[in-house]
Design a protein that fits this description.
By secondary structure, the chain is α/β, with parallel strands linked by helices. It has 13 helices and 21 strands.
Length: about 525
């Protein structure tokens, strides 16, 4: 049941006087539930509870954390149809997408449960003492990852479940041993509250400390700013716009104690169409990319917003086919009128640029909050000379850049901002003839796709969902997969400590039977 209140630990409170509602973009009207924005006192209480909970939660065993994470997954599933209906009413997304995203959210939680239950993720490293070493003795040093402290997670607009209240950031932080305070996204506050209720129930059932999780409502930016500035908050997770992520990064850096902000932000995800591939399958590629560009109304962070090719008859054929096929696809609903408005504004700004040509623009009448897809094209030199054309247009929009030759193609790739993904479309062994293109692309992206589409992010340990700025604020980390836990920990060493008071992960007898590096050798064996 949705109350419209804030979860401050296990308590539902709403002492403020500022309220708002969510919006159903499909029906083009507000939803019924009223949400109360958190007050400064409620924010402070949530952070104080998280800080207090950290003292206990940081020492909770991997086995117990796994029970907690699995219990969250179970409680989310128990919400059943109420969650699905609320999700759809607040996002305009179809039921199939809601159920798929719920499945991904549950899978993420269970993956982290498996990770912490096994335990080797702490990267225990032991170098034993050599007391008779000459000319000086060598100390006993033992290192492992430990949690940072309370983490603030911002819900994402385009993924009400998988990147929001119990999404990847929250699951990873809880797995690491960090209490989490979620700043719920105002577009899906009801969905967020339902998920928060599941997390609180799971915390109570598994006897986690009160304050290990809180969920805070806000329709504006002030609450988020107060959370990031709070001295007891130790890290931030964000998925959203470059403007929003950069503002949080700057705010965190200005604190008396600066803290890390792990933000996944904008990306236009360049796709490189190599000549032979276009020559042999231009029409099929056009069909594939028309579908990818419009998937989810273009509201994925991996949407292919930029297609690069070398001028040829085959590229002309691809452009012609893409223009034809994309307008055959029926428009779909965007997440919110504000997102529709931003899409229209950014689209208008882009097509107003000199030298840009519109080659496909869906012109039939559409329902309110539905987005009309558009394809543009531009010469390579024009693209290079105009940074405005490099900016993301969030929605079903893509631009085809016609390069003069391979040299200009490489130059364009090298001058792009950091991206989440890059894609190479190649025929047979064609790609082997373009090592400089591969190298340039690798320097700009976090993941390269070969003969596929960037839309769709597999949740697994080998996934990198991040990239050079502004795709993310720290390209050394992924926001998807179990390795994303590394964002919420720091390495810590014990020197010459008595064995009996070391953490179990570092004791000679290896009671957890985890894989450790001992004197440079990976082993599960005891230290004799």
């Amino acid at each position: 049941m949705i109350t419209g209140k804030n979860y401050i630990g296990s308590q539902l409170v709403a002492s403020g006087n500022k309220t708002y509602k969510t919006f159903n973009p499909e029906s083009n009207q507000e939803n019924e539930h009223i949400f109360t924005e958190a007050t400064q006192k409620e924010i402070n209480n949530a952070v104080d509870l998280a800080s207090k909970a950290f003292k206990e939660y940081r020492t909770v065993s991997g086995e117990r954390k796994a029970e907690f994470l699995n219990a969250i997954a179970d409680e989310i599933l128990a919400l059943d149809n109420e969650l699905i209906q609320t999700y759809c009413s607040e996002s305009g997304l179809p039921e199939g997408r809601a159920k798929g995203e719920r499945g991904r959210t549950v899978f993420q939680l269970r993956s982290f449960a498996d990770l912490v239950e096994e335990g080797s993720w702490v990267e225990a490293t032991i170098d034993t003492a050599i007391p008779d070493r000459e000319p000086s003795p060598k100390s006993d040093l033992r290192k492992m990852n430990i949690p940072l402290g309370p983490v603030v997670v911002f819900g994402a607009s385009n993924f009400p479940l998988a990147y929001s209240t119990a999404g990847g950031d929250t699951a990873a932080a809880l797995a690491a041993g960090c209490p989490v305070i979620v700043k719920s996204h105002p577009m899906h506050a009801g969905t967020g509250e339902l998920i928060a209720s599941a997390i609180i129930k799971a915390a109570e059932k598994t006897e986690m400390p009160n304050g290990v999780f809180s969920n805070i409502n806000s329709s504006g930016i002030e609450v988020g700013q107060q959370l990031v500035a709070h001295p007891k908050v130790k890290a931030v997770g964000f998925t959203g716009s470059i403007r929003g992520g950069r503002a949080l990064l700057d705010l965190a850096a200005k604190r008396e104690e600066p803290i890390p902000v792990f933000a996944e932000m904008g990306s236009i995800n360049p796709v490189i169409m190599l000549p032979k591939a276009l020559q042999n399958r231009a029409e099929n590629l056009a069909t594939t990319y028309a579908n990818s560009i419009t998937l989810g109304t273009g509201q994925f962070c991996t949407n292919p917003g930029l297609i690069l090719g070398i001028k040829s008859d085959a590229l002309d054929s691809f452009i012609s086919s893409l223009a034809k096929k994309i307008v055959e696809i029926n428009p779909t609903c965007m997440l919110h009128p504000n997102i529709v408005g931003a899409y229209e504004n950014n689209k208008t700004k882009a097509i107003a640029q000199e030298g840009l040509a519109v080659i496909a623009n869906y012109k039939e009448n559409t329902q309110p909050n539905y987005a009309s897809q558009i394809i543009t094209t531009v010469e390579g030199k024009t693209f290079l000379d105009n940074p405005t054309l490099h900016q993301e247009v969030f929605g079903p929009y893509s631009m085809v850049v016609q390069c003069e030759d391979e040299k200009q193609l490489e130059e364009i790739i090298s001058n792009l901002e950091g991206q989440l993904t890059g894609t190479l479309i190649s025929d047979a062994n064609e790609v082997a003839n373009y090592p400089t293109i591969i190298a340039a692309l690798q320097n700009r992206v976090g993941r390269i796709i070969f003969n596929g589409v960037p839309t769709g992010v597999e949740v697994c340990p080998s996934m990198v969902h991040g990239g050079p700025y502004p795709a993310s604020t720290d390209s050394r980390f992924t926001a998807v997969g179990v390795h994303s836990i590394k964002r919420w920990v720091r390495p810590f060493s014990y020197q010459d400590w008595p064995n009996n008071i070391l953490p179990d992960e570092l004791k000679n007898e290896n009671p957890l039977h985890i894989l450790r590096s001992v004197n440079g050798k990976l082993t599960k064996e005891d230290i004799v």
